[in-house]
Specification:
The structure is a homodimer of 347-residue chains. The first copy, chain A, folds into 2 domains: 29-154, PurM-like, N-terminal domain (60s Ribosomal Protein L30, Chain: A, 2-Layer Sandwich); 166-341, PurM-like C-terminal domain (Phosphoribosyl-aminoimidazole Synthetase, Chain A, domain 2, Alpha-Beta Complex), CATH 3.90.650. In chain A, helix 2 (70-86) runs parallel beside helix 3 (107-124), helix 4 crosses helix 5 and helix 4 packs parallel to helix 8. With 347 residues, chain A is α+β, with helices and mostly antiparallel strands. Chain A has 10 helices and 13 strands. In chain A, the strands form 2 sheets. Chain A has a 7-stranded mixed sheet with strand order 8-10-7-11-9-12-13, with helices on both faces. In chain A, strands 1-2-3-6-4-5 form a 6-stranded mixed sheet, with helices on one face. At the A-B interface, helix 1, strand 3, strand 4, helix 3 and strand 5 of A face helix 1, strand 3, strand 4, helix 3 and strand 5 of B.
Amino acid sequence: MEQAKPTLLSEIGEFGLIDRLTANRKMVQSSSLMGVGDDAAVIDAGDHCILVTTDLLVEGIHFNLIYTPLKHLGYKAVAVNLSDIYAMNAEPRQITVSIAVSGKFSLEALEELYSGIYMACDKYKVDLIGGDTSSSVTGLTISITALGTAKRDEIVYRNGAQTNDLICVSGDLGAAYIGLQLLEREKELFEKDHSLQPDLDGNDYIIGRQLKPEPRADIIQLLKDNGIKPTSMIDISDGLSSEILHICKNSDKGCRIYQEKIPIDASTAMMAAEFNIEPLICALHGGEDYELLFTVPLESFEKLRNMKEIHIIGKVVDKEDNALMLTAEGNSIQLRAQGWDGLLERE
Amino acid sequence: MEQAKPTLLSEIGEFGLIDRLTANRKMVQSSSLMGVGDDAAVIDAGDHCILVTTDLLVEGIHFNLIYTPLKHLGYKAVAVNLSDIYAMNAEPRQITVSIAVSGKFSLEALEELYSGIYMACDKYKVDLIGGDTSSSVTGLTISITALGTAKRDEIVYRNGAQTNDLICVSGDLGAAYIGLQLLEREKELFEKDHSLQPDLDGNDYIIGRQLKPEPRADIIQLLKDNGIKPTSMIDISDGLSSEILHICKNSDKGCRIYQEKIPIDASTAMMAAEFNIEPLICALHGGEDYELLFTVPLESFEKLRNMKEIHIIGKVVDKEDNALMLTAEGNSIQLRAQGWDGLLERE
């Protein structure tokens, strides 16, 4: 009998893999309100809910210690998990941190990593309540789980977008990606000629966006203060295009994104030009911006228009009307997810 | 200026590392009832508590795929986390599963892993509610977080043992360790001569204890049914000696363990003899038994004596009286933790 050929993971991609591994599972605990498929899982805890999210960071895949200071790495590892909790319109409370390290790491190196972890804990008022430590065969792996709380009716999922809702994004996009390109370039130059010093002058912003992203707690607070509850929300870890498609798919809607409304910082655009990359590509597919992408009812428009950290970039349409980006020239382009696929190893 | 020499992780060991990395941290969230330092962290959720525990399993450190079927590995990865929840006298409800895999794994291999994960989920009625998938540079890493619930006054910590309490252990000890030795031996023989088939006949019990441990949900239920609430509890992942010292340290007590009361299965003793290892050493320092070690007030004696799955192996004494094991010959031996230290790579 002929044996079926094994399926390569690269053939199906990360989302395909998750779909395959989690398909057709029914939840049996009544407290499991939301499982796989949003920024965080939701557990009913009586008068409120507990939110749970987890991320795995692998050396050589998600980070390169040549240009990533351990303290920044620790900070970022926490920040990206908190971002998932905020993206549910919830407040982070606790984290667990597990690390696997090879013999090349010293106690002092790990203390440096943890100083970054604790810096993020202090800033966002979360407690480190547990974890695990292990040796590894090669390099460093960090697994963080973040827990948060929210009242049940405060939680914002990916699936609540309504036709005619405004699509909003916080901050600006693409900087983390172009910051990474710059770090990679300087690394390669250094590897060819060790006498060269990295030329990072004047690029603090884009490098900071890559190495030390901040979860947008401030945006969640701003919306709350103004009585705005998004109908759907997600954080931008894989690029605007991939994330808006998640909202469209989960909400069973389509969208119109106006290209000229997508916020891109001048320094991002300048460095992108240096790399001969269209800045728009960085914003659509770069990822790791950890900004919030959300939809709000049309009537919030007046409140939103004066919030300088929030940009209205489009609107929700019926599913049949597709997910399109309209360019300044009046062309319409089908949005596609080309975001970072953890299984395709972008570094 | 001379630079201080970096401290090797092997110099300080896993528990030393955790102490160093988590020392002097105060918790800021009032809901964080228990952080690092027990089988699971405890979060106040109003009318009940949420328990959280996490474990990292690394290929080449914690498991060897040459003799570990992926389905068993998935099952065990869940089981060891649930064991930590039961060890708090709580009920597991949900898990998250993150995996990092190298290109050598196919979709079908991961489906096999997940079939074991789901088998454990089904048996213990827990939901898989989230996770992360990533590529890895080498091998497979599995990070599981388990969540459970308990009423606040039902939770059993490591620190509640009282002088004169009985020390009890469920099941039997040392089998998982000697099962591992057998698997390792057969692997080495196979590597020398590929025509050899593994000789595992008649050793189902010890191999099963290594490859497919069960968390002792039944013991927790048995104690509950009989109205017994342990004063302290821990699960045996690192060997009896290491675990009883955790209870003594956290409870500020000492202990007397009676050597001849330590439950060791006949098949464990026989295989240990074949390896020229004292069976007692397997029980004290082998680890991975995932049995429950707990203390109960003296007045529970009558109820406990007829429970065949529970063995009274000693008693709690004052701290000043030390942690000793009394041998059949009347000698007393200081108990020491020589359990598995994840950072010393026992495999």
